[in-house]
Amino acid sequence: MHPTFFDAMTTRADARFRTAEQAGAVLFVTVLTAIAAQISIPLPFTPVPFTLQPMVVLVGAAALGSRLGWTSQILYLALGLAGLPVFAASPLLPQGVARLAGPTGGYLMAYPFAAFAAGWLSERGFDRRYLTAVVAMLAGLVIVFAGGVLWLTLVTTQSLPAALATGFYPFVLADLLELLVAAAVMPGLWRLTRS
User: What is the pTM of this model?
Assistant: First the structure.
């Protein structure tokens, strides 16, 4: 296994400092996820808004690794369940527990799993080169879309083709373009640390 970017940047021997650094990093990615949720574009033909969250989830997990990436997204969901306004602003979708039960709940609940997958692949060195970083982030994005579309079929009782039409097709191209840009972040950071 390779050290994550977070591991490479924090090499304190004292366990107390290490725990504090990990908690700070998890909180930082959680806050970035919440901020990315506020940058949302509602689309008139679907209850699912377009946000920058998936890329923050995936880049954050690539930097932190599987366990801390997972934890950052569990914390994000916990804050949302507690009623804090961390989910995308929406006049139709409420904050809190009801958001997870609504049409976007599948995407949100998939974030920890997507973070774990992208982080796990990064722990194996996938975040060090652009093409493998694309693969790691694509694995996470597939999990986000699978969770979201599956949830749409269950919650809205749409057929799979209808769920794909409202929860996948309108977003996939933009998310793939974002992913191609986001995948350059980690290899770029690794190059900077070696110079």
Answer: 0.93
Alpha-carbon gap, residue 176 to 130, rounded angstroms: 14
Query: Across the strands, what pairs with 50?
Result: 41
> What is d(CA 138, CA 122) in angstroms, rounded to the nearest whole number?
12
Task: Please compute, for residue 119, the number of CA atoms within 13 A of its CA located in the half-sphere on the CB side.
Answer: 25
Residue 139 near residue 85 (C-beta atoms within 8 A): no
Domain at 15, CATH number: 1.10.1760.20
| Domain housing 81 | 5-194
Question: What is the count of structural domains for the chain?
Answer: 1
Say how far residue 124 (Cα) sits from the centre of its chain. 19
Q: What is the distance between the alpha carbons of residues 188 and 8, in angstroms, rounded to a whole number?
A: 14
Half-sphere exposure of 107 (CA within 13 A, CB side): 26
3-class secondary structure, 127: helix
Helix (H) or strand (E) holding 32: helix 15-38
Per-residue pLDDT of the chain (195 residues; tens, 9 = 90+): 888 999 888 876 666 788 889 999 999 999 999 999 998 888 887 778 889 999 999 999 999 999 999 999 999 999 999 999 999 887 777 888 988 998 999 999 999 999 999 999 999 999 999 999 999 999 999 999 999 999 999 998 889 999 999 999 999 999 999 999 999 999 999 998 874
